[in-house]
From TrEMBL:
Organism listed in the record: Fusarium agapanthi
Biological process per Gene Ontology, one example term: DNA-templated transcription
Regions that span the bilayer: 773-793
Stated name of the protein: Transcriptional activator ARO80
PANTHER family noted in UniProt: TRANSCRIPTIONAL ACTIVATOR ARO80-RELATED, ZN(II)2CYS6 TRANSCRIPTION FACTOR (EUROFUNG)
Skewed-composition ranges (Polar residues): 297-320, 333-345
Length: 940
């Protein structure tokens, strides 16, 4: 048997189309569309004969040379269903022109809003399956006989999104539409070689069909209870639950059904609008006009208006239903700044003969020439001023009709890999962007506000690919239901980062994207970590470094030196925010890792205030705005940086402070400044979860500063251990030289845990917070472990600390349903630390659990450490320092020789409320620390 390649034949003119359910909203729209394409149409109806006759009369008057034949069939009755196609073809007006139905749109269906399975009877099930599945099979089968015989046919089955389990109706409706969808997929494969195509269109939430009542009102309050709204205005409640805030229209479904038809005039839209249909012609290969200048305009042409023969392609010229049209001054930044206008088409004769020479000379004399990059910039400027070069620029970049990217946007074409791969739809991307804005953005508000206009998703993908991909990657992390979308976005983000490293970027969005990724640090796809050990910070540090280099390439560091000017453009504010965020992220992650800083910061002579970020001032957060929040974070980051430089800058510097005791004055000064920061920002009326994040930042810095004194005391005690009798490390804490600082550090650590346990919902707030807040909590919990084992916390008080840590572990578990989630991994780390410490203590002192010979054990541990390793612990201190590098040491500590603790049975489920089952609180004696200091692998 010889096969032949099929030719393309999408000509519909003169063919017979049968539209079932044509008296309804979708059916009538489809019938009108096929009529506009020159088809004869069979108008099926079940009970609405008057509507079908009216539609036939309307179409006959508009298209007098075509046939529009109403045909009746009750699809709930099998005999009537079997006779439908025969009844149509047997009519004289039809049989004289057609022998087969060439196009079938199986649109008729039954829908009843019975959602509770308990209310669905067997008769309801049978009726639904009869009308929505069996009858469609019978009609399709009857039409296919003629289609296969003539070797051409088009079958469109109108299904529903309910086939995937969603929608407004019950399981019987979902099952019937699922059966229809599966039938279509099977037939599409089997019939394609015979010239018959089968497609399924699955609409959802379509108005004007009788399924959803029309909305009574057009407005509702943001955040209102939609279930309550359904009782009074169900149509509005359903529309409000949709991302675009409106119901779909039958015409939109119709456009999906007739997609791919030829564009020969007259087209359907022109007929409906009663307009002359003129196809656009190509401008490729035309004469290039010399002397064009992008952005060039003359005052004498202020009254210029676009010619109808050359329309300007503007996005969102027709706003979606329920949205206000954009004013010209609110038009897209990218369109207004990057696209040329008709005024750019000035002829060569309009230019002054010496204009280019004068401008070039002025540019050369006023420009700096300090390095090779400046020389290249001057050469590029000369090339831009060359007429022929400008003509090419105009044709390839400035012309909205010839720009490939803009053409794709205007036609709804998207070549975004996560979308084209099927892992993500544009509507899902819009939802995730809004989800990020509502839950993540408020903690690190650097993403440009235009990126959250989800109605312009195609435009955003085109012009902010880095920022949008970063937002989608963060918004889908730690949620198993979005795992496929997350993997696609993460892999695409990795590809984009590789390009940035090799080629750089001139867009601020690339800097914002890298900082956002660094702040939330999604886990790499290839890694399968089960415990938290600070590894996320390594990736964050690298991302921040790349972001800062890109910022330097774009001269963003200069924006901090520009004085504030009223009415300055948003792009300047955006650049200033991006550079300030580079400074904050760099300081925070570098301090956590103990690495050097990448950036110089905003500059010692510049004191950025909320007024320097005007577009953040327009974004409200409670009774205050994001600009004030940004300034608060900027100021506390500066305090953090200063504390690190003065107290923790180097190992030798710390040793000197430990011995000399000068740190007391520094800690007092920092504590005083920190209290003033709290007085300044503690009274602002942010929303509770943002206020809680400021509390965590404040208490962490308080802990970071005062813990230095705690460590200094431990260091001195261990050094004197050979000369003094054995005893507890802190036999009397109140008598210690730095007692007030040690008490303050313990109070700060307890406050961090209390804030999480009492004021932050793990599933509604904490799960969305950046990585640093998780690490603040872990640092506080491990510090309290250390304080208990060192004897700084009394046995009577230790029980309360243990309960707080148990609750912290429980809340960390609840932040994610993913076993690899950040909270889950660090919850395991804390529990493993607890179990291992408990096991070591008992194994070393099984007969005497009440010993308090911690000083001797500490001395023994320090000497053994020096004997076994030439490097020893940092500073020869068995407790080490409180550098964030110790999260890696913590991970090694809890995993070394502890494989028996870490198995499948250990994985903590989100449903557990505590970890007290394995070892209850009462198993922890107040003197447990006495047996824990005699080995090398001590906490920190």
């Amino acid at each position: 048997m010889t096969l032949r390649l099929q030719t393309i034949d999408n000509n519909l003119k003169g063919r017979l189309a049968l539209v079932t359910g044509s008296s309804g909203g979708i059916g009538s729209a489809v019938a009108r569309a096929f009529a506009a394409q020159g088809c004869d149409v069979g108008l099926h109806y079940s009970s609405s004969k008057e509507k079908a006759d009216k539609l036939a009369h309307e179409l006959s008057e508009t298209y007098p040379s075509q046939l529009f034949v109403p045909v009746h069939a009750d699809l709930s009755q099998r005999e009537s269903t079997r006779a439908l196609v025969t009844s149509l073809l047997s009519q004289n007006v039809v049989s004289s022109k057609h022998k087969a139905v060439s196009i079938l749109v199986a649109n008729a269906g039954l829908g009843r809003r019975i959602r509770d399975v308990a209310e669905i009877g067997e008769d309801d099930w049978d009726e639904m399956m009869e009308v929505n599945s069996r009858s469609q099979f019978v009609v399709t089968k009857a039409c296919l006989a003629g289609m296969r015989q003539q070797g051409w046919g088009r079958v469109i089955l109108v299904g529903s999104i309910a086939a995937r389990g969603s929608g407004l109706n019950g399981c019987h409706y979902a099952a019937s539409k699922g059966a229809l969808t599966s039938m279509g997929q099977n037939l599409a494969t089997l019939l394609a070689p015979e010239g018959v195509t089968v497609n399924i269109v699955s609409p959802a939430m379509i108005g004007s069909t009788g399924m959803i009542p029309p909305p009574i009102s057009e407005t509702w309050d943001r955040g209102c209870d939609l279930e309550e709204l359904k009782k009074t205005d169900p149509g509005l409640a359903i529309a409000a639950s949709i991302l675009v805030h409106r119901l779909g229209s039958p015409n939109e479904v119709c456009e999906a059904i007739i997609i791919g038809v030829p564009g020969d005039p007259p087209c359907r839209r022109c007929i409906e609008k009663n307009q002359e249909c003129i196809l656009a012609t190509s401008r490729r290969g035309g004469r290039r006009i010399k002397g064009q200048r992008l952005g060039y305009s003359r005052s004498t042409n202020d009254s210029y208006q676009a010619s109808p023969s050359r329309p300007i392609n503007r996005m969102n010229s027709v706003p979606a239903q329920g949205q206000e049209p954009r004013e010209p001054d609110q038009h897209s930044e990218w369109l207004s700044s990057n696209l040329g206008s008709p005024l750019d088409q000035q002829s060569e004769d309009d230019e002054e003969p010496t204009g280019d020479a004068v401008r070039l000379k002025g540019h050369f004399t006023s420009s700096d020439l300090l390095n090779p990059s400046d020389a290249l910039d001057l050469l590029a400027h000369v090339a831009d001023m060359e007429p022929e070069g400008h003509a090419q620029t105009q044709d390839t970049e400035g012309d909205p009709e010839n720009s490939t990217g803009m053409a794709n946007i205007s036609q709804g074409v998207c070549d975004y890999p996560p979308v084209t791969s099927g892992a993500l739809t544009l509507s899902e991307a819009s939802f995730l962007i809004e989800h990020y804005h509502d839950n993540f953005h408020i903690f690190f508000p650097i993403a440009y506000s235009a990126a959250f206009e989800s109605s312009r998703i195609l435009e955003l993908i085109e012009h902010e690919p880095y920022l949008i991909t970063a937002i989608l990657t963060v918004a889908t992390k730690d949620d198993p239901s979005w795992s496929r979308a997350h993997n696609a976005c993460a892999r695409h983000m990795e590809t984009q980062i590789s390009k940035l490293i090799y080629t750089g970027s001139t867009t601020v969005g690339a800097v914002e994207a890298l900082l956002i990724l660094a702040e939330w640090a999604p886990q790499p796809l290839e890694e399968n970590l089960m415990i938290g050990c600070g590894k996320e910070d390594q990736g964050s540090w690298m991302l921040v470094g790349v972001a800062i280099r890109l910022a330097y390439l774009q001269n963003l560091e200069q924006t901090g030196l520009v004085q504030r000017v009223e009415g300055a453009p948003d792009h300047l504010s955006r650049k200033r925010i991006a550079w300030a965020a580079c400074y904050m992220s760099d300081r925070q992650v570098s301090i956590r890792l103990g690495k050097g800083f990448w950036s110089r910061g905003p500059g010692p002579s510049v004191n950025l205030r909320a007024a320097d970020f005007p577009y953040l001032q327009t974004q409200k957060l409670g009774n205050d705005n994001l600009a004030l929040l940004f300034q608060a974070h900027l100021e506390i980051t500066q305090l953090f940086s200063n504390a690190h430089d003065i107290l923790y800058s180097s190992t030798s510097h710390r040793e000197q402070l430990y011995i000399g005791g000068e740190y007391v004055r520094y800690i007092d000064d920092f504590s005083s400044v920190l209290r003033r920061w709290k007085l300044s920002w503690g009274g602002l009326s942010f929303i509770p979860r943002v206020k809680a994040s400021l509390m965590l930042s404040y208490d962490f810095l308080r802990l970071y500063i005062n813990a230095f004194a705690f460590q200094a005391n431990l260091n001195r005690i261990v050094r004197r251990s050979k000369k003094r009798p054995s005893g507890p490390l802190f036999s009397e804490l109140a008598a210690a030289p730095d007692a007030r600082f040690i008490y303050e550090s313990i109070d700060a650590a307890n406050s961090i845990l209390c804030t999480l346990n009492s004021f932050i919902d793990p599933t509604e707030a904490f799960k969305y917070m950046p990585l640093k807040f998780y690490l603040y909590v872990i640092y506080a919990a491990v510090f309290l472990f250390k304080a208990i084992f060192a004897g700084a916390i009394k046995p009577s008080e230790a029980r309360g600390v243990r309960r707080a840590i148990y609750e912290t572990i429980s809340r960390l578990q609840k932040t994610s349903n993913n076993q690899q989630g950040l909270g889950q991994r660090y919850a395991r780390s804390l529990r493993l630390l607890w179990l291992k410490m408990l096991g070591k203590s008992r194994s070393r002192n099984p007969e005497v659990e009440g010993r308090s010979d911690s000083l001797a054990l500490a001395s023994h541990g320090a000497l053994q450490s020096q004997a076994e390793s030439s490097e020893g612990h940092l500073n020869s201190d068995p407790f080490n320092s409180f550098s964030w590098k110790d999260l890696h040491s913590l991970g090694e500590f809890i995993s070394n020789d502890g494989t028996s603790l870490f198995n499948d049975n250990f994985i903590i489920s989100p449903e557990q409320d505590s970890v007290q089952g394995a070892e209850g609180p009462e198993h922890f004696s107040g003197n447990l620390y006495s047996g824990s200091l005699g080995e090398i692998d001590i906490i920190f």
